[in-house]
Design brief:
Largest sheet of chain B: 2 strands, antiparallel
Distance between the termini of chain A: 115 Å
Strand order of the largest sheet of chain A: 1-2-5-4-3-12
Structural class of chain B: mainly alpha
Structural class of chain A: alpha+beta
CATH architecture of chain B: Orthogonal Bundle
CATH topology of chain B: Arp2/3 complex 21 kDa subunit ARPC3
Largest interface: A-B, 51 and 54 residues
CATH class of the largest domain in chain A: Mainly Beta
Oligomer: heterodimer
Distance between the termini of chain B: 15 Å
Number of helices of chain B: 8
Strand content of chain B: under 5%
Number of strands of chain B: 2
């Protein structure tokens, strides 16, 4: 209820308890503050009541801090203007040098991170396919312009031998064609002389994946009565006995069916870019379940008896995976010609 | 015309305390000028002292300082000590000054802010949390004072332009206050 004050002080209630202007309260609180200050300084980093209180306070206010940080994030750079204006040249030079050092370090760390990821993927592939393998690193590319090969830093001393398949984290990339004691040359699947027994993963249509001069891959000897679609994954069939069954090779880029032809013309996009793989796995041996079974061979025979006869009778290097010398690939061509002819 | 509306004034102070607390915890750490950051505890203590003063002002100053101390990594009790004294000094003759004299209250608060910031940072220097006096004065004290005064200004402006009440920060004006338009009811706590 309003009442006139006239010359009277604002509040009798307030004045009754505040006659000294808060002096006594002030003294009590000052003493309390000093006690807290002393105790807090003595407590230091050892932990105690104040540390606990502060921790609890920080915990309670964390959501507010988080929200505040999100709201004020766009404006935080404004405060740096004052610092930048008052910074001397020496400080700026130091910061530039520091920045350059950190940029270089950052690039180095990013490279390490990518290496770690590749290795992690390789380990994943090794684990997924239960590969008996040894790790290697690509140390150089092809030394000539007419073959697609890379050199790895493992040789016969590490158990690598000619004919062993090589994979990266995406799938098969080639086969060892030359082997020294400390290094080996790997012919890539994109090489013109490379051919690998392969199949369409979804329809199980069998064929032979061949490289070409322009670096593209072509899946040959796939009969036109089989199902092949753009985007299908091409995997190793294991029929040659060199590559383990089911390793990814690429995806179907285009499928053409020529009138009167028994086979599709299929272009395949390799899963790995030959420039990008640096760490690889050399598959040193195959387990029984990684090899093509008798049923697989029978299925291949059923699909194209004429074209795959050489495969079914165990001529591994001779038909499907003949990256070594190219002679077998030529023989395969001859067979294909026979069929088409 | 005097109005006694204790509950409303308490509520208004509660709203003010909450606003300052949220700003102190959420916003102040993220807006820096040099190494300085706004001290919303000081703003709250300043408003309480300039509006009410006396025992309540001192108590508000102590609590604001204590909350500030909890929010920082410095020793607990230092800002409580400084704000308790500052609130007492500011509140001796400054009751409801914000409503009467905006410029004067800004001047008083600015001196209070500068003094408290200087003492606080010098004390931090003495306890070993800072190393350079120049850094303490120019990179911490002055920016802190500037930001705190900037933070105080809108509060002072709003409060000084309130006609129905000396402090209205969310609560509906009381019927009695609206009727009589007193600016002096804050003293009736």
């Amino acid at each position: 209820m309003p009442r006139k004050s006239g010359a009277t002080p604002p509040s009798t209630r307030f004045r009754r308890t505040d006659a000294d202007g808060g002096l006594r309260t002030c003294i009590v609180l000052v003493v309390l503050s000093l006690v807290m200050f002393t105790a807090s300084v003595r407590e230091g980093d050892a932990g105690g009541v104040f540390t606990t209180m502060r921790g609890a306070w920080m915990t309670i206010t964390t959501p507010i801090r988080w929200a505040g940080g999100a709201v004020t994030a766009p404006f935080q750079g404004l405060g740096n203007i004052f610092v930048n204006l008052t910074t001397d040249q020496e400080r700026l030079s130091d910061l530039k040098a520091e920045n350059e050092r950190l940029v270089a370090r950052n690039a180095e760390l990013e490279e390490s991170e990518q290496t770690a990821r590749r290795l992690e993927s390789l380990l994943g592939l090794q684990s997924l396919y239960n590969l008996q393998s040894t790790g290697a690193r690509i140390i150089s590319g092809s030394t000539d312009s007419w073959s697609s090969t890379v050199t790895i830093d493992k040789g016969s001393a590490a158990g690598v031998a000619v004919g062993m398949p090589v994979t990266d984290s995406n799938g098969a990339i080639g086969q060892v064609v030359k082997c020294g004691s400390a290094s080996a040359t790997v012919r890539l699947i994109t090489d013109e002389n490379s051919s690998v027994s392969a199949m369409i993963q979804s329809s199980r249509a069998q064929g032979v994946l061949r490289g070409s001069v322009d670096g593209s891959l072509r899946l040959t000897l796939v009969r036109t009565d089989q199902m092949v679609e753009v985007g299908d994954t091409v995997v190793t069939s294991g029929l040659g006995g060199v590559f383990p069954k089911g390793l990814p090779l690429g995806t179907v880029l285009s499928v053409e069916r020529t009138s009167g032809s028994l086979y599709y013309e299929i272009e395949v996009e390799p899963l790995s870019s030959t420039e990008s793989f640096e760490e690889v796995l050399v598959i040193t041996s195959l387990t029984e379940d990684q090899k093509a079974t008798a049923e697989d061979v029978a299925e291949a025979d059923k699909q194209d008896t004429t074209a795959m006869t050489a495969t079914s009778d165990g001529g591994a290097q001779g038909e499907g995976e003949s990256q070594g010398d190219g002679e077998d690939a030529s023989a395969e061509d001859d067979e294909q010609m026979d069929v088409e002819g | 015309m005097q109005v006694k509306d204790t509950n409303r004034n308490r509520r208004d102070f509660g709203v003010l305390a909450c606003i300052c607390l949220v700003l102190q915890v959420a916003v102040a750490p993220n807006i820096a000028l040099g190494n300085g950051r706004a001290n919303l505890g000081l703003v709250f203590a300043g408003i309480a002292s300039l509006l009410v003063g006396g025992r309540l002002g001192v108590l508000c100053g102590f609590l604001a300082g204590f909350v500030f101390d909890l929010s920082t990594t410095g020793p607990i009790g230092l800002m409580s000590f400084l704000l308790t004294i500052a609130s007492f000094v500011l509140g001796i003759e400054a009751r409801n000054r914000m409503a009467d004299d905006f410029a004067g209250s800004m001047r008083l608060f600015s001196w209070m802010t500068l003094g408290v910031s200087l003492f606080y940072h010098v004390a931090m220097l003495l306890v070993g949390d800072a190393t350079s006096l120049i850094d303490v004065v120019f990179m911490r004290t002055v920016p802190t004072a500037i930001l705190t005064i900037i933070a105080f200004t809108p509060f002072a402006y709003v409060i000084s332009h309130e006609t129905g009440s000396a402090l209205s920060l969310g609560g509906k004006p009381s019927k009695s206050a609206r009727s009589h338009g007193s600016r002096y009811d804050i003293g009736n706590l």
